[in-house]
Design goal:
The complex is a heterodimer. Chain A is built from no helices and eleven strands. By secondary structure, chain A is mainly β. In chain A, the strands form two sheets. In chain A, strands 2, 4, 5, 9, 10 and 11 form a six-stranded mixed beta sheet that branches. Chain B is mainly beta. The chains are: A mainly beta, B mainly beta.
């Protein structure tokens, strides 16, 4: 089946640094979603993207829908300790309704 | 408070003993879904439902059953659990096909 490839798998950064991560697919997606999962909790939706080239912000987080429609990017500016967690990209393969696949995640660690 | 509630949070059972994990949402969402999360494999969709009495298989449906008799409830049934179904399970719901899922807090299942 289709896969979403996230990179990097993990990041160790200093508080205050900016973070970039990405998600790629061999197929076109019409929607890109970014989630964050804290330890012991379910994933929480951060940003939803619906149009190629779209750039959307949520506080210090900014995500972009790649123009090829095969990738998406998430940036976090001025990281803080509570940014620690696992970030997932997700999308509906073939534009399917209800079927949502996830990347394997980028684990972010922030050193105070 | 808008939420997805799943029970139990923790469950230890023996091989072959039928079990049901309940899931309920109070947001009047049409879409509901079950995922399992395993180290190194990420979140994988088991089943999803587009509305009452409408369900479809995700990527890993083998060994699971679901039903959607009411809009708010979407139970996950393991007729004959096996140790390879030991995992962290999440129920989720969504207002639309590409709106992104809201996740419950998870059920950690151990099958011995």
């Amino acid at each position: 089946g289709q896969q979403l490839n996230q990179s990097p798998q993990s990041m160790f950064i200093q508080e205050g640094e900016d973070v970039s991560m990405n998600c790629t697919s061999s197929s076109i997606f019409n929607t890109w979603l970014w989630y964050k999962q804290d330890p012991g909790e379910g994933p929480v939706l951060l940003i939803a993207l619906y149009k190629a080239g779209e750039l959307t912000s949520n506080g210090r987080l900014t995500a972009q829908f790649g123009i090829t429609r095969k990738d998406s990017f998430l940036n976090i500016s001025a990281s803080i300790p509570s940014d620690v967690g696992i970030y997932f990209c997700a999308g509906p393969p073939g534009g399917s309704q209800g079927n949502l696949i996830f990347g394997k995640g980028t684990k972010l660690s922030v050193k105070p | 408070e808008a939420q997805v509630t799943q029970n139990p949070r923790y469950l230890i059972t023996v091989t072959g003993k039928k079990l049901t994990v309940t899931c309920s949402q109070n947001m009047n969402h049409e879409y509901m879904s079950w995922y399992r999360q395993d180290p190194g494999l990420g979140l994988r969709q088991i089943y999803y439902s587009m509305n009452v009495e409408v369900t479809d298989k995700g990527d890993v449906p083998e060994g699971y059953k679901v039903s959607r008799k009411e809009k708010r409830n979407f139970p996950l049934i393991l007729e004959s659990p096996s140790p390879n179904q030991t995992s962290l399970y999440f129920c989720a719901s969504s207002s639309g096909p590409w709106a992104g899922y809201t996740f419950g807090s998870g059920t950690r299942l151990t099958v011995v």
